[in-house]
Amino acid sequence: MNKMKLHGGGWGLVLMLATGPVLAHDPVFGIGPHVLFKGGVEIAPEVRTRKKGGDRDTELGLELTYGITGDWAAGVELPYARVSAGGESSSGVGDASLFTKYRFWRKDSLGLQRSATILLKVKTDTAANKDAPALGTGTTDAIMGLAYGYESRKWYHWAGARYRKNGTNAAGLRRGDKILLDLVTGIRLKPTGYLEPDTVWLLELNGEFGQRAERNGFELANTGGTQIFLSPGIFWTQRNFAIKAGVQIPIYQDLNGDQEEPDYRVKLIFEWHL
Hints:
By secondary structure, the protein is mainly beta. The protein has a single domain, classed as Porin (Beta Barrel).
C-alpha cells in the first residue's frame, strides 16, 4: 500500500475537515450550511446597528446553539434592543427566536467540501415591554430556508434562500411576507495551519423582496418593495474562537409609496465553540 505524505497545507486540510465544526464558516448577513458537531455548544453574542434617515436602532443578541447530531443543530436567539424613532427612544428585551438547521447533503474531496442544509426559525411574540411596540412585532413569524456551501482552502462560495411568513398582531396588522436571497464569496489570501489565526475576506450580495403589509385585509400603500445590498465583511478565527463583522450598503432600492430608505446596517458577531 502506498503511503501518502502530507506537508504544511495538506495537514491543514486534514485538520480543517476533521475539525470542521470549529473552523467552519458562514456568511455575516446571509445563511450558510454550517452545523455543529454532536454534543457541541456554540455561544455567539452579537451587535446589530441600523440607520434609516433620522432613526437608529441597536440590538444586542445572544445566540446559543447545540449540536444534536453531526448534521443537526438547534438553538435560541435572545435579543435586547434599543430603538430611536421620532426623537424618542425605548429599550428592552425583544422577541426571542427558536431555530434548527439540518445538513442533508455533504460531499468531501481533496481540498474541498460541499454541503447543503435546510433551516427553520420561529420568532415568538415574547418582547418584554408591550408598551414599546418597536421592540417587538406582536406576532409569531416563521422563516424557512435552504443554504448551499462550497469551501476550499482558498475560496468560499455560499448561496441561500429564505421565505419569511409573518403573522397578524392584535391590531389586525400583518407585515408583508418577505423573500431573502443571498450570494456570497470569500477568499483566504494566506493559507494557515489549525493553530494559527485565520482570516477570510467576504463579499455578499443580499436581496430582500417584500410584499405590502395589510391591516384588516386591506393593503397599505407605503409598505413592501425591493432592496439589494452589497456587504463587505471579514471572518477571523483562532482555533475555537471567531469574530465576524460586516456592513450592508444599499445599492438598489425600489420601495412602494413613500418610505424612508436605509442608510446602512452593521453587524458584529463573536463565536465561541465548546
